[in-house]
Give the backbone structure.
Amino acid sequence: MFQTLLNVMDDFNSVWSANPALSAAVTSLTNYMDELTMASNIQIANTKGITHNKIKSRALLIEMALQHSAACISYAASIGDTELKGNSKILYSTLNRANDILLTNSCQSLYNLVNPHAASLSDFGADATTLNAFQNAITSYMPIGQLPLNAIIAKKAATLKIKTIINNTKILLKEQLDNLMQQYKTSEPDFYNQYMGLRHPAHSNARRKTVDIKIQVKDTNNNPLQHAEITLTATKGAKRHKLSKQNGTHHFERLKPDTYIITVYLPNYITQTQSISTLAPQTLNVVFVMEGVTGSG
């Protein structure tokens, strides 16, 4: 709702821009929205960076383990060492299902088994260099419980800042903007009604108990964007992750009245964040117009 309110203010800029008090309040609202976007981006960057890095590190570690397992099995078979051959065998499904600790332990055990034979493995797809890289990958891979402390702190700080910004914005609206808008009730009814319609949803929603949020994601040419990652986060802690459909939409249903941070992420586009606040059951339509990153296709 916050960003939608700003859109209304922009549409009626000529009506209120000469009013110093209202101009100052709108400037404060704009600043809060800028701060909210920055804090949300920090939250997303930390989460996405950690998640993507972990996925890549895990996939690389499993790939290296399978490479050295295959090399040692082939070598053991060539010299007729059935014990080494059996001990070297490791399955993708086993590694893929393992938690982080079991994965690193399994890889370290395999390394310890294969490393003494490094000089004999060059014809089988492994050598001292690949084994060294394997050991480095094992060492550098950190289970989720050992993520860098500064990333965890930054994420928590961003979360707390978002809550503070939303609280300050609510106070600004209730104590300043709502009261300042009363002077336009008669002189500028369209302006007043659009603003108040967002702040106080129509009574037709009185029987509803939940909130629906309809998301539309499109590019600057008005083309729908499919598979955009939409993250909906409530101030009370609930979080949902969905992908936009072929027509660029997704519909979040049966939500509780709350303030929601909605973030849309799609590779090659600038991540966008909007804040939607509702104290009463209603259906909200939120549009994200995604701008391409400079230099992307």
Residues 1-200 form one domain. The chain has two domains: 1-200, 203-297. The chain has a mean pLDDT of 87.
